[in-house]
Specification:
This protein has 403 residues and is α+β, with helices and mostly antiparallel strands. The protein is built from ten helices and 19 strands. The radius of gyration is 24 Å and the shape is elongated. The structure holds zinc ion.
Length: 403
């Protein structure tokens, strides 16, 4: 299913041995600088669909060390290393770091030190990833590394929540140069051990039922959308979801009605369906639709008047899985062990979902440090291992881009 990613001939060649060592040495001393840049980036808000101010900051930084990065049509910032490399000829390696945060424009972004920790929205996710990607790119340029495959540093929009991976979906659209990638590495959040090579897929739906409505006394007996939704919830809560592949279904939000003395005209709910298997996602969707049809039929039977239903897909993240034996996972395992850490294989939903579903070998890795309370106002980061996250990324790149 996955395209081959042959180990490059000449990997670790004498020509690159010195530059690689120089890059390592320089990068190893950048722990404090990476943290400073992480804090600087985190202080610039990047709400969903409004990532541009933070992306401009990153573009300025790239320009300051000679990278002419460009914005694509939807706001991804792209920097090719080496500059001007021809990606079509040699399938590139992509390093993707998302620029957006989960926090809307109404949230004040305040980043402060509390003891050993840095606290504030987005300090880790993904200011850490962005700072580490920038540091690694600086190291490659400074040391004059010449990779066998071009490396695309993609600073992506729309990874979180309602962004629905729109940045990476656009980046890897049919016919684009990045679509020919031989490997894709998402750098997201903190940590030194986790290697995500199983993408958790999701489908999100909004279901709206509409009916005639009416007075709760004089019109009683008319079909009630809220009752239909209630029955629907009952039916889907009884669905037997597989444990293997693990699949979950959550009734996440619901509402409807206008007043205490009226039969609702409308009732709605939102569902979050997740699975590590795309096939199971879609077969479960089918079962949910059947449950909805049965619930509507039951309420139409009970009450008078017509009920109509609207089914909206409001989110879609494809699932996918790269075997642990794949050279990309192996390279990440090895890079993790070099740092004295034991690799942990994991499942998550990241920018890597999209390439995995397209058959492009992909992983997501953390960018070092220790963190918690991600996606909350109290998100925190502790610089527990300096430049290790950056060194791990450099080692993975040396292996898969060939230098
Ligand atoms: Zn993230």
């Amino acid at each position: 299913m996955f395209r081959p990613m042959h180990a490059e001939k000449g990997r670790g060649s004498p020509a690159n041995a010195k530059p690689l060592q120089a890059a390592r040495t320089w990068l190893g001393e950048q722990g404090a600088a990476i943290l400073d840049e992480q804090i600087e980036v985190a202080r610039v808000p990047a709400p969903p669909f409004q990532e541009n101010v933070r992306a401009e900051l990153i573009a300025g930084k790239l320009a300051s060390f000679g990278m002419d990065a460009v914005f694509d049509e939807i706001g991804n910032l792209l920097a090719w290393f080496p500059t001007g490399s021809c990606a079509h000829e040699r399938s590139p390696v992509i390093v993707a770091t998302h620029v957006d945060t989960v926090f809307g424009p109404e949230i004040p972004i305040e980043i402060r030190a509390i003891g050993e920790r840095w606290v504030g929205p987005g300090i880790t996710d993904n200011a850490r990833g962005l700072a580490v990607a920038l540091a690694v790119l600086r190291a490659l340029i400074g040391a004059g590394v010449e990779p066998q495959r071009p490396i695309l540093f993609a600073f992506t929009v729309g990874e979180e929540g309602s962004g629905d991976l729109r940045g990476v979906k656009h980046l890897l659209r049919g016919g684009s140069a990045p679509r020919a990638a031989s490997a894709f590495i998402a750098v997201d959040g903190s940590g030194l051990r986790r290697i995500i090579h199983n993408a958790l897929g999701s489908l999100r739906f909004r279901v709206t039922v509409e009916g005639p409505g009416g007075h709760s006394w004089t019109d009683w007996g008319r079909a009630n959308p809220a009752v239909a939704i209630g029955e629907f919830i009952h039916r889907i809560s009884e669905l037997n979801l597989p444990r293997e592949p693990r699949t979950t279904l959550t009734v996440a939000r619901l509402g409807g009605g206008t007043s205490i003395n009226a039969i609702p005209v409308e009732a709605w709910l939102e569902l979050d369906l997740r699975s590590v298997s795309d096939e199971t996602l879609h077969s479960t969707e089918q079962r949910i639709r059947e449950a909805l049809a049965a619930s509507l039929a039951a309420e139409r039977e009970r009450g008078q008047g017509t009920l109509s239903v609207e089914w909206q897909l409001i989110g879609q993240r494809p699932a996918g899985s790269l075997p642990a034996s794949h050279p990309l996972v192996q390279a990440a395992d090895e890079a993790t062990r070099i740092l004295g850490e034991e690799p942990e294989h994991a499942v998550s939903s990241t920018d890597a979902n999209v390439p995995l579903a397209l058959g492009i070998p992909a992983i997501a890795v953390g960018a070092g440090g220790t963190a918690g309370d991600t996606h909350t106002l109290n998100e925190w980061f502790e610089d527990s291992d300096g430049a290790s996250g950056a060194l791990r990324l450099l080692a993975i790149l040396a292996s898969v881009a060939g230098f």
